[in-house]
Structure formats: structure tokens, C-alpha cells
């Protein structure tokens, strides 16, 4: 099936970039000029970056690499919506209020200049998505509908039922197809090739052929999403959210930032950890303990169920720890009660949630309360970038959950993650497009590719004593959940670090049983596990060092926020296999440090 | 189903997964492997496969990503029906198994096979590109981001369900036309085309429609409803296909393809006689020249075998045709009223 040359409105000034020549370039890229931009990851941030780069300079050769088909990316799982002070619903909403809510939500760890960019770009980006076809839910006056969300002072979360991320991702993918962006689907990124302080491009494996290939590139954008899957069974994330981009960048010498901050979402389904959107509470759902009490009134009397996520998660965990949870073989849990909303609202506004509850828990929220407990959900930390997505290595960018600008600080507000990937995806795409026309990188040495190929092969060698990656993966999730979870304390975290250390040692014995080249998912999952192990160390180390409680990071042995000592970002640099910690000040602005109450 | 649930009420049992295996580097042809594992009730097929991959046979290959029914990666044929492994309960499948306790798992059909349960998805993406499955905004790109379009909730409702599509390709796998013609547009692309055409923000409605009425386009569908039946998101795909057809006749008349003319000839016959005038049907659908060229030999054979349909004058109008006509007229007036109502809003 040959695709017809895609129509585009690109001016004919750039004959080097016709569909046919790009196809040629795709086939014989090793012998040709480097790509202008290689984007790793085809989620919201990656696709927006690709589209914006295409718009900035239609003559650029842009490749989007993704280990899955881009339309499968985890952006699709974002249900709730994206915040923007459109003031469609609450006429008195302003960008300033959005900025303040975000900074307060971050427990003042967010860089205020970055938050200002995020929130002031928000209305524009939501309208832009509308202009390119995202099916937003509408209000009676035909404008984009908005609903209340946790930690926000006004209802400013724009949504499409409970499939917001899905529809945004589809729209961006469709627009990228329209613009003729080149997709390298099912390529797994392995390594960044660095020449001094400048990148030469990327080395990746073609999953369908097993071949290790070089992608010489003037600029590389990492947009690979988060790393919260390291909590494995106690995570709401997709199986592939293993922090590949962060791990590659980290090993290439790019610092990571604020890795200890992992957000736990209050309402994961009991058995699978899958997420019940905050929208369910936004629509008016109650959280109830085994005594039938709406316990949030004791923790956030004003906002109740719509407090910020870290607070609500801690409240749930406390209820469970203090014995007011329900008991089941799959663990203790609480109830999210939607029954009072009525069948109509559940069916029209939360259809996916209803479906999920029925598939994975066997519970219909119209008739029964939903069993929930907190689940690892979002990684605030990531690759350290400036406000344009740039990292310390020239030509390397990061955007979205993969990067850390930082706009979420110690705790992200619901509805700000989609916004983050869109706004910073776009900014990064434009920045990379502008830079790409200025540089010409040196070629990636063939030896680097061979070395990588050899490394992959070595996993397949038969060994006397071997480990299965599946067991290691589960153990990693277990130890992180128990020791570096919602409530942390020094002795537990030290246990966690020791466990991760021993898991890294056991990883040396992992054997890949599938020795074939074609679509070797066995090898892939082992490589993903390696990335998770590298990052898990930074998460645990950071959690141990930060002796305070801030946002999602709660130390029972240091229960208060310590602005004097810890109002700063943690920076991790790869140093001989171990993270070296340094610090970076938080950029302040209009808003002074305040106590954070809801 | 209630009977069989009683049959499988036990909390845990041995289940055999009969999985389609094929590694192009080693195997000359596909075969089936049986994996028997002990499972607890409430487990999904995907989790069972994950268990097999992690603990029994790591070479078993399938796609999976979100595990929550929203990414569409893990579509496969389970007991001869395409569906998502992650949202399918093993116990439900046990009820449908032909051989007791054995669940058959195969890759999707109608797409090139890569390995075990993995198929090539590029053809679907290629068709999405071919049929412009995107909103080509009426607003020039330079003006994007300044103003939102005003869209009514009623319009949103028209394509709301269609935007649920996660491109899992279950409908592609079950489509009976694709089995015969790989070039056929495919249900998913029709669904998405319908969604784009219904969007008032889109500016290439006519152009997209012109592509859809070509050969291997919307008129090739035989209304078998398999796509709708198999859709993992319960999207009424056939409604979308009918929607495109109605739209095509309304905007372009019946000149485009034999499919449209065929439909019109049927309509004529039913109105006039209440039954088909088969002898002239090919002429009205494909023209006289085509019929003489392609159907004359068959017609001769039919005459020899005395299997010819009655000549047109002998096809008598059915009894009660008057009331049928009346009913049809009424129906037509209802439809026009509905249309008027819609456009009035």
C-alpha cells in the first residue's frame, strides 16, 4: 500500500524536502546529510515539537522516532484535561491566578519565570488545538467548556469528556501526517552520540529488524515521557514509561533535576493501579472510608476532594495506615463514590472511567462505589532544561514529562501536565528549528554503532546462573513502593537504595532468551529495565538527601518544609555509574514563599 | 451467557492459551504453541500473556503498552474475534472457547504479519494519509491560537463517538472486504473520514469526499456489520459509513460509482414494483456497454440453463405496492423534516 504524496501548503521553495526525496533520505540516510531535528518520542510533546518545527521552517528534515506507533503514546491516557485561563466558564479567571495556583501547587519549588511562560501561553495553545481540530467539549454558548480541577482557584480545565489526552494526541498525529513529518515508528533509542559539548546525533535500534542504526542529527529533542513506571504494579503508567530519554541523557552526561519528586495520584484502581481521573472528583465524586465518612473534611476542609494531589494522596494513605480502609486480597483501599452523580452524568462525562471500572474491577460506578488507592502517576523530575528546552549539551533538548524546566516543582497540579507538554513541546520545537539551521555536526563513528550492537548481543549469551527480567522489575516496583513511596523516612530509603543496588547487580545476570533480530520485545524490556534501574538510584538518593517535606516528597522524620536549607533544585550528574548531587537555586519572581494550605 | 458463567464459577483453574507463533527468521510457516498456566478469576488475557512472557517463554512476542484499553496496541484475535487483550477477561473467554479450557490467540488479519502476534500497522497509517484523515482547518495557520471556533454541542455530539477510535485495527482485521481487496479504504478510515467531514472547522470536505467515492472507497462496503460488531470502543462504524454515502449522494448525486447507481436502481425498483427487475439491473448500474461486454456470455449461459430472470415487462408490481409507496413517501417526508430541523438549528 503506497501512500499518496501528502498534500501540504509548504512553499515550493524547498525542493530538497519533497515527499519523494525524503523517502530516499529515509532509506539511505547514512550516506546523506544529517537530519535537522531528531525527536525521540511521539507523544504530545514530541508531535507538537515536530509540527512547530515544520511550521517554523518547512524545509527542515525532521524525524520522529518512537518505540511504539505515536498514536499509542501515553499522552492518550490523560483523561482530565488541560488548564488554561480562557475565562469561558469563570469570567473572572486570569492568567495571574493560574500562575499563582501553579506556583503554590508546586510548593514554591517551580521556577516562576517558567510558570509564567506556561500559563500565559496556555490560552493560545488551547485555541490553537481547537483551530486544528481537537474536539473540545462545549458550553451552551459554543465556546470551549471548562471544569474545576484540584488545586485550581477557578474552573479552568479544558476537556473533551474523559478522553482529553487521547483526542489531543490524535489531533497532533493527524496534523503531523498532514504536514508530512517523517515517522520512524518502532525504533528504540539507545544512546546519544556526544562529541565534546555537542551532540552528533542518536543511535537507535529498529525494533522490526533488530538493526542498530545511527541517526546523525543537528539537534535531538528528547520527549520520551516520564519514569513513574519504575513503581511497576503501583503505577498508573503505561508499561513503556520507563524513562528512556532521561536515562540516555543521564548516561551521556546531561544532568537530571528534582528526580525525588514522584507524584502519587490519589485514585488508582485497587487491583491494577490504573487511574480514575481527577475529573471524577471534579464532577463531584466523594472519597469515603470504611466508616462511611467523607474523610477529606479533616484534611482540606475547604477544598475537600478537590485539594491538590499530594495532599489528597497523603490523606488516603493515612486513612489506610490508620486502619480506616477496606480490606481485600489485593491490598487495602478506600471508596470513590460517584453514585450520587446519577447515571446520566456518569455516562456522558465519565464514560471511559465507567468502562475501566467495569473491565478491571468488575464494578459499575453507577451502582457501586469504586475501590481506589494512591498510585505512582507522574514524575516531576527529569532532564534539566532551561525555558527553551535546552540542556547543557549543545543541540540536545528535552520537553514534556521527560524534561524538567521546572514548572511543576515539588507537585504538579492536575491539568498542568497536558499543558506542559503542549507549551514546552512547541517552544522546544521552535528553538530546535532555529538552531538546526546553524550547525553541522560531525559524523557518528561507526565504532559506536558496532559497540552498541555488541552490547545488545551480550545479553543473549547463555549464562550459568541467570535472572529473569520480570522478577527484577517486580522487585524494583515493590521496594520503591514500600521504601520510597508516599511516606518516606531515612531508614526505609536506605533500605530502598540497598535494594536497588542489589537489583543492579542481579541485572548483570539477566538473560535474554529471544535471540532473534525481528521484533525482540524480550531484549527491549531488558533495556527498559536497565533505564529504570539507573533512574531509580537517583530517585532514592535524592529522597534520602532532601531532609524536608515538600509537595509530593514527604519525610516522616522531617515533616515540615525547610526553606532555608532546601528551597533549591537537586541536580544529579552521572559520575562513574553513580549519581553525584549538586544544587541549583529556584528562580523566584512575583510570589514570595508562603505556607501552603488548602 | 448466564449458564456458562455458572460453569466457570471457580476462583482459579488451569487455562491453556493456544498461541499463534511465527518467527520469520526461523520458521517456514506458522504453528500453535500451547501454554497452560494456573490463573485466578478476574485476570485479563494480557496479564496472562505477560505472565507467560515473564515466567514461561520469553520469546513470545506481542505488543502491549498502556494496559488500560486506551492505546490500542494489544489488539489480537482471541477465540476468533479481534479485540484488546488488556480489556478481555480470561473467564469471559473460557465461556466462548470451542475446546473446553483452551483460549485461541492469533494475530490480527488483513495486515502483513511480522512475528507471533505482531502485525504491520503501516498500511492503516498509509490509508489515513491517502484519505486525508485530518482536519484541514478553515483558518489559515498564521492565525491559529488567536480565536477559538464556535462549535455547538449538537455538532460535537455527531462526531463525539467517532473520536473514541484508538486505531487498534480490530475492524480492519474483521473486515470482509479487506479480505478480498487489500486496497479497500477500510472501516477505520471511513469512520475517521466521516468524523472529519462532520467537523465544521474542516475546509476540505468536498475534496475528501471525492476521494472516498473512488474505486475501493465507501461504495465497496457490503454492510456486513463485522466492523461495528468487533469495535472495542462500541463505535457505530456502520452509521458513519451510511453517513458518508448519504452525504455523497446528496452532494455528488449518483454519477460517481456503480455502487451509488446500484443503490438508486434498487430504490427505483422497490418504489415502482416492490421487487427487483433483475434483467435490467446491470445496465442501470454499469451501463449498456459494460453489461454487454462483461455479462453477455453469462446471460447466454443462463438462457441455455433456463435460469434467466423474467423480462422486465413481466415483473409485476407486488400486491399492496400502493401502501408501500405511501409508507415510503411518509418516511421520505420524515427524513426531510429531520433535515430541515437540523439545518434550522
From TrEMBL, chain B:
Keyword annotations of the record: 2Fe-2S, 4Fe-4S, Iron, Iron-sulfur, Metal-binding, Oxidoreductase
Name of the featured protein: Succinate dehydrogenase/fumarate reductase iron-sulfur subunit
Family, similarity comment: Belongs to the succinate dehydrogenase/fumarate reductase iron-sulfur protein family.
One Pfam family named in its UniProt record: Fer4_8
Lineage: Bacteria, Pseudomonadati, Chlorobiota, Chlorobiia, Chlorobiales
Cofactor dependency: [2Fe-2S] cluster; [3Fe-4S] cluster; [4Fe-4S] cluster
Record bears the keyword Oxidoreductase: yes
Alphabetized Gene3D superfamilies for the sequence: 3.10.20.30, Alpha-helical ferredoxin
Domain 2Fe-2S ferredoxin-type, first and last residues per copy: 13-111
GO BP, sorted A to Z: respiratory electron transport chain; tricarboxylic acid cycle
InterPro entries: 2Fe-2S_ferredoxin-like_sf, 2Fe-2S_ferredoxin-type, 2Fe2S_fd_BS, 4Fe4S_Fe-S-bd, Beta-grasp_dom_sf, Helical_ferredxn, SDH/FRD_Iron-Sulfur, Succ_DH/fum_Rdtase_Fe-S
Organism: Chlorobaculum thiosulfatiphilum
Pathways involved: Carbohydrate metabolism; tricarboxylic acid cycle; fumarate from succinate (bacterial route): step 1/1
A molecular function GO annotation: 2 iron, 2 sulfur cluster binding
Top-level taxon: Bacteria
PROSITE patterns cross-referenced by the UniProt entry: 2FE2S_FER_1 (PS00197), 2FE2S_FER_2 (PS51085)
